[in-house]
Amino acid sequence: FKQGNSYASLSLGLTFLNDIDFSADASAGNHTVNAAGELTFDTGASAGVTIGYILSNLVRTELELGYTEMDYDEVKGELTLTSGGNTLATVGGAAALSGEIETLNGLASVIFTPSASGLEGVPFLHLLSDLLGNFTPLVGGGIGFSDWESKINSATTSGGTLTINGEESDTDFLAAALVGLEYNVGQNLTAAVTYRHLWIDSGKNGVDDAEADNVSASLAYRF
């Protein structure tokens, strides 16, 4: 390991969990939903810590641990929700959900960094290095795990409120792809903005897999 090639970073961002479709007789926790529809979510907040190592001017590796929390928004469709022997029905409508999802994600990633210094001497691409200056593009992906917990407290329509108090948790495979742009602030400090698409193999019991988009800003220190 060479001095100056290792780094640690902290990030804060926003996570947009895509709508999740479900089929007939989907179940989670202690509640069931009969008929088909989709779940929608509010924008969530994320935070993460990363350690990395620069293998060369063009490649680096990272290990990241991140936390995300977001609230449920609605469940839409022609629904009959059942929990604890009680039923709440909505035909061609939506029920507002009270609840949240928390995730702890671990990722091992490989990042390609076509930096200005890395492009020097490369035919034709050296022209791009003149444009980049102190900026470094980031392109890569990773795999890992997502340890998640879902809580739904209640569902509300014009017909009333159904108390659910359902919980479900699991740990599933996680894959991610990312692009970003890093700026060299100083000798040992860099700042970056990153977009990442996440896929979690969480589909079960009639509910589809989860996908999300994350936009974050980070500061990294080399040591």
Task: Offer a few descriptive terms.
single chain, 12 strands, 223 residues, mainly beta, 73% strand
Walkthrough of the structure:
It is a single chain. This protein is 5% helix and 73% strand. The protein has two helices and twelve strands, in the order E-E-E-E-E-E-E-E-H-H-E-E-E-E. The protein has helices at residues 116-119, 126-132; strands at residues 6-17, 20-22, 26-28, 31-34, 37-41, 44-54, 59-83, 86-112, 135-157, 160-184, 189-200, 210-222. Strands 1-6-7-8-9-10-11-12 form an eight-stranded antiparallel beta barrel. A hairpin with a 2-residue loop joins strand 7 and strand 8 (86-112). The protein is elongated, with a radius of gyration of 22 Å. 28% of the residues are buried. The model has no long low-confidence stretch (mean pLDDT 85).
